[in-house]
Automatic annotation (TrEMBL):
EC code(s) of this entry: 2.7.4.6
Protein name in the entry: Nucleoside diphosphate kinase
A biological process term (GO) from this entry: UTP biosynthetic process
Entry GO terms, CC: cytoplasm
Gene, per the UniProt record: ndk
Lineage: Bacteria, Bacillati, Actinomycetota, Actinomycetes, Propionibacteriales
The UniProt record lists the keyword Magnesium: yes
Subcellular location: Cytoplasm
Cofactor(s) this protein cannot do without: Mg(2+)
Catalysed reactions, as listed in the record: a 2'-deoxyribonucleoside 5'-diphosphate + ATP = a 2'-deoxyribonucleoside 5'-triphosphate + ADP; a ribonucleoside 5'-diphosphate + ATP = a ribonucleoside 5'-triphosphate + ADP
């Protein structure tokens, strides 16, 4: 089994979509092994998005991700990392396929509801960062 770190970003909480999004992961067969409501600080955002901090889109992304509570979780299952990314859909909600979380619920390339680790290395890094007791 594999673990992936998932973040339901502030737009998911604000729009009342936490239950709907979690239901998709659960229905797929992924098991939730940790879950916490977290108000992300600028410092945590900078660490989480370390590879993006110098990009033009980062300042508004930082503002967005710190704008209200998020739900941080770890899911576990066979090929969890790839499965989560398939369920999430393409980064840009306007282009994401219908049937995916972003494709069904997002019309934005920034406010795209959900983050999922993109490799085993990022999953390990992100789990250690967000859930140091479980790392
Ligand atoms: P995530 O890492 O959140 O699962 P991703 O891997 O699909 O998403 P990345 O390229 O890693 O996308 O970008 C991280 C996040 O930065 C995106 O989810 C989105 O919120 C934001 N982002 C990426 N590209 C842009 C952009 N061009 N304009 C605005 N926001 C962007």
């Amino acid at each position: 089994v594999e673990r992936s770190f998932v973040l339901l970003k502030p737009d998911a909480v604000r729009r009342g979509l936490v239950g709907a999004v979690l239901a998709r992961f659960e229905a797929k067969g992924l098991r939730i092994v940790a879950l916490e409501l977290r108000h992300v600080t600028g410092e945590l955002a900078d660490q989480h998005y370390a590879e993006h901090v110098d990009r033009d889109f980062y300042p508004p992304l930082r503002k967005f991700v710190t704008s209200g509570p998020s739900v941080a979780l770890i899911v576990e299952g066979d090929q969890a990392i790839e499965v989560v990314r398939a369920l999430n859909g393409a980064t840009d909600g306007r282009k994401a396929a219908p049937g995916t979380i972003r494709g069904d619920y997002s019309l934005s390339n920034r406010e795209n509801l959900v983050h999922g680790s993109d490799s085993p290395e990022s999953a390990a890094r992100e789990i250690a960062l967000w859930f140091p007791d479980l790392g």
